[in-house]
Design a protein that fits this description.
heterodimer, A: mainly alpha, MetI-like fold, globular, B: alpha/beta, Rossmann fold, 2 domains, 4-stranded antiparallel β-sheet
Chain lengths: ~280, ~260
């Protein structure tokens, strides 16, 4: 009964001062950052020392120059790609949750749908993209569909799995209290699926930007994919690298956003001191 | 006996001719011809070897299992296959990890239709009594084993039902914490005397807490012994060394030996 049994509740990460969080993050990511700086430095030195042609491998400094030269058009391309990715991942997640719910609640649907879901992932997106352009034109629709197709799969697999694995004893407990189906869903099933849903969404977020770029590659008027396509046609390898960096930064930002969202939605999963004393 | 003034009319638990077996080849006979009467407002325990079907009986009374034969009633309602008539506390504490302590405490009351505001008020007033003061906003994973168990008990007590079904609530606790819990449970129960059916495999615990102790035999479970405990309450630890207590304990242990088939009867 003593108060000593419990770790301080004030240690909850959401309650900690932002400054402390930032400092901890800086300390945590410093090694990765240093490694990156080292690799870029090595790259610069190697390209100069070995006198590699810029269209084969541009030095980081040259990539930077290309970035500055094209910075007038980059925001538009980037914004297009980001929009497609965000829209696609949102639709993919929504469809994923819906499918997970019916897969988990109806056995027949599970048996019929699950194999089809796997088949849907065996079709290479690079094959599907031209077809979607034929069907939906050069606008945003085919890109959003591609991203949604990439995003829904990890969401539906992880979420339906979590729903099916929900603690039977917890369900029995709320049933003994007289809970109806809706109350069981609200108090037990949804919360127990949230962490897995976000795990799936994190995987989806890592691929979403790249998915949008592939879709744009096939045909678009704006977007990082078409920027890469044009750069490649002009042997502007330095511009391709600019796009690669932007794609990497966007993907990391999206991943981080999903991570923060999951901390907000499932704070109990992120307690610093989760163990009993 | 008890210095209680039972204001409410409590009807307790009535089980008649109850048999239950799980399907299979051959079917697993778990409970056989159980007759049990728990008067309203009394504390009755069932002791028995593990796997004998004690928990199964509680699950029938909680409305989670349907017996093959016989009837089961709690507070005047048929519980066979009908949940929501008893306050059931399973063996595991089963706190919801995604709810803070206070929200876990009011879960049952909320589901049973008590207004959230009212349930919270009551819960808050009981946190101190349950030794949980100051931990209203803690997550379950931040609580010690003893506290988790008390929180699960609090949740059970907050359910607006007359009959409490407690399945080895202290089974997972160490001996010292357990002793403290026994004293504490007596106090809490004496304050609002509701009907309790308590399942344990600890004979001493059962004698300390109960008005009546039954012994259940190994599968198929039958009630093979009954001991009435008439010590005044509250019962301190000194009662354990009382000659009558020791005598009753011996009777129960002998019955348990028979229950497990160690001694032919």
């Amino acid at each position: 009964m003593s108060a000593r049994e419990l770790p301080a509740i004030g240690q909850h990460p959401l309650l900690a001062e932002p400054v402390r969080v930032a400092r901890r993050a800086a300390a945590a990511y410093l090694p990765a950052f240093l490694l990156l700086v080292m690799l870029v430095g090595l790259w610069e030195v190697a390209v100069r020392a070995l006198d590699i042609r810029p269209y084969i491998l541009p030095a980081p400094s040259r990539v930077w120059t290309a970035f500055m030269d094209t910075r007038a058009v980059l925001p538009e391309h980037t914004w297009t790609t980001l929009q497609e990715a965000l829209l696609g991942i949102t639709i993919g997640a929504a469809v994923g949750v819906f499918l997970a719910a019916i897969i988990a609640s109806i056995t027949l649907v599970r048996r019929v749908l699950y194999p089809l879901l796997i088949v849907s992932q065996t079709i290479p997106m690079i094959v599907l993209a031209p077809l979607l352009v034929i069907w939906f034109g050069l606008g945003m629709t085919p890109k959003v569909i591609i991203v949604a197709l990439i995003a829904f799969f990890p969401v539906v697999v992880s979420t339906s799995d979590a729903l099916l694995r929900a603690d039977r004893d917890l369900i029995a407990l709320v049933h003994s209290m007289g809970a109806n189906r809706l109350q069981t869903l609200w108090h037990v099933l949804i919360p127990s699926a949230i962490p897995s849903f976000f795990a799936g969404l994190k995987i989806a977020s890592a691929y979403a930007i790249a998915g949008a770029v592939i879709a744009e590659w096939v045909g678009a008027s704006s977007g990082l994919g078409i920027y890469i396509n044009r750069s490649s046609a002009a042997y502007r390898t330095d511009q391709i690298f600019v796009a690669i960096v932007i794609i990497a930064v966007l993907s990391m930002a999206l991943f981080a956003a999903v991570h923060l969202l999951s901390r907000w939605a499932a704070p109990w999963m992120h307690l610093k001191d989760g163990g009993n004393s | 006996m008890r210095a209680s003034t039972v204001v409410r009319t409590m009807t307790g638990i009535q089980v008649e001719g109850l048999s239950l077996s799980f399907p299979g080849r051959p079917p697993l006979r778990v409970l056989e011809d159980i007759d049990l009467d728990v008067p309203g407002g009394s504390f009755v325990s069932i002791v028995g070897p593990s796997g004998c079907g004690k928990s199964t009986l509680l699950r029938v009374l909680a409305g989670l299992l349907v017996p093959n034969k016989g009837t089961a009633q709690a507070s005047g309602e048929d519980t066979c296959g009908r949940a929501g008539h008893t306050a059931y506390m399973p063996q595991r504490d089963l706190l919801l990890p995604w709810k803070k302590a206070l929200n876990n405490a009011v879960l049952g009351a909320e589901i049973a239709g008590v207004s959230k505001h009212e349930a919270r008020e009551r819960a808050l007033s009981l946190f101190d009594q349950f030794g949980l003061a100051g931990f209203e906003q803690a997550w379950p994973s931040q609580l010690s084993g003893g506290m988790r168990q008390r929180l699960a008990l609090l949740r059970t007590f907050l359910l607006p039902m007359e009959v409490l079904l407690l399945d080895e609530p202290f089974g997972a606790l160490d001996a010292i914490t357990r002793r403290g819990m026994h004293q504490w449970l007596q106090e809490v129960w004496q304050r609002d005397q509701r009907t309790v059916l308590f399942v344990t495999h600890d004979v001493e615990e059962a004698l300390l807490l109960s008005d009546v102790v039954y012994v259940m035999s190994a599968r198929p479970g039958r009630l093979i012994e009954r001991v009435d405990v008439r010590f005044p309450r509250p019962r301190g630890l000194e009662v354990v060394s009382d000659a009558e207590f020791v005598d009753m304990k011996a009777r129960l242990l002998a019955a348990l030996d028979r229950a497990m088939g160690n001694v032919p009867d």
